[in-house]
Design brief:
heterodimer; A: 148 residues; mainly alpha; B: 206 residues; two-stranded antiparallel sheet; 8 helices; 2 strands
């Protein structure tokens, strides 16, 4: 068993008691102890501040890495999804046109101000808009557009 | 707004920015006090430290506080209006070091259970035990010996210093200052003075 034996338990309680005594000591007592031990308080402060700062940086960087990882996973999943869109660029833009004609309110959801003119839209934009509508569950039309 | 429990602004938890500000605003004396506290706690848990140092304890207390500032369920929340930041870190270090010690002891007990229940044998008769992969669960005679020697060194050094001997015995049993004052007939001043002498001596020999 890795249990502490009697002596180790006693030493542990003694050391914990000394830790508490430092926590409860008056500032003057702590300063006197540092003086007696010829401790440079500024060096000590730098060391401990450095440890606490590094811990904070490490924690925040890990959070950032996790967020980045989550974002990249979402992008990968988005790219890997099967969207069942029309095969050609011409059919895709027709599908978008039909969709927006039937549901003009979608235009505000997917189209930004600089993309009001269909003739200026590249296939990449059209495909992206269609995918967004699919993801939102708003594109329940067949892959091949049927013009009215 | 996150609350560690109970209503009212007294329990309002610090944000990440407030934790950073608190770290930066400590005085040199407080940083020094934190370091000494961490050192005594780590000496206390002895072999259960498993290579960790007072730096590890300080860092873990900070990380845990940052976690608590952003999560409802993880880390330790600093109730900034109720507890001074230094006191919060003392509490975090107490809890973390005690957890390390208990986890160390549990680890060996789990190994023992697993050993009898989860040993496997392959086709050619080689027995594989989970405990082969974990820490040696036997008591460490070197650490135990070192603990006994430290206690003997204290007894020898303070022979003739009745207050210090009383305080050492009381601390070994986990008594508080208030308990010593109530039960041992010592004043708080004498307890603190004796404790200071013990700290100075142990710092020299450890």
């Amino acid at each position: 068993m890795p249990k502490f034996d009697k002596h180790e338990e006693q030493v542990m309680r003694l050391m914990f008691g000394l830790a508490d005594s430092i926590a409860d000591a008056s500032p003057s007592e702590v300063l006197e102890e540092a003086r007696q031990g010829q401790i440079n308080l500024l060096d000590e402060a730098d060391e401990v501040r450095g440890i606490l700062r590094a811990a904070g940086r490490q924690y925040l960087q890990r959070k950032l890495r996790e967020s980045r990882q989550a974002y990249e996973t979402a992008v990968t999943e988005l790219q890997a999804k099967q969207y069942d869109l029309p095969a050609s660029a011409r059919e895709r833009i027709e599908l978008l046109q039909v969709t927006l004609r039937e549901r003009p309110e979608f235009e505000q959801i997917v189209m930004t101000a600089q993309h009001r003119n269909f003739t200026e839209l590249g296939d990449e934009d059209v495909t992206s808009f269609l995918k967004q509508l699919k993801d939102l569950g708003l594109l329940d039309m067949p892959a091949s557009p049927k013009s009215k | 707004m996150k609350k560690p429990g109970g209503p009212g602004t007294q329990n309002e938890c610090a944000t990440t920015a407030e934790v950073v500000a608190a770290i930066e605003s400590l005085s040199a004396e407080q940083y020094y006090r934190l370091k000494r506290f961490a050192q005594w706690r780590m000496r206390g848990i002895g072999r259960a430290a498993l290579g960790r140092t007072h730096d590890s304890l300080l860092a873990q207390a900070a990380v845990s506080t940052f976690q608590g500032s952003e999560s409802e369920t993880k880390g330790r929340k600093w109730a900034k209006n109720r507890v001074p930041f230094v006191e919060h870190l003392f509490g975090a270090m107490r809890s973390i070091s005690t957890h390390w010690k208990e986890a160390y002891e549990r680890r060996g007990m789990e190994a023992e259970l697993l050993d009898c229940e989860a040993a496997t044998e392959d086709d050619v008769g080689n027995v594989s035990r989970p405990s082969d992969l974990v820490v040696d669960p036997a008591a460490d005679p070197f650490r135990s010996c070192a603990a006994r020697e430290a206690l003997e060194a204290l007894d020898n050094h303070f022979a003739g210093d009745d207050d210090a001997l009383l305080v050492i015995e009381a601390r070994k049993e986990g008594m508080s200052v208030a308990g010593m004052v109530a039960d041992l007939g010592l004043t708080e001043k004498r307890v603190n003075a004796a404790t200071q002498r013990i700290r100075y001596f142990l710092r020299r020999i450890l």
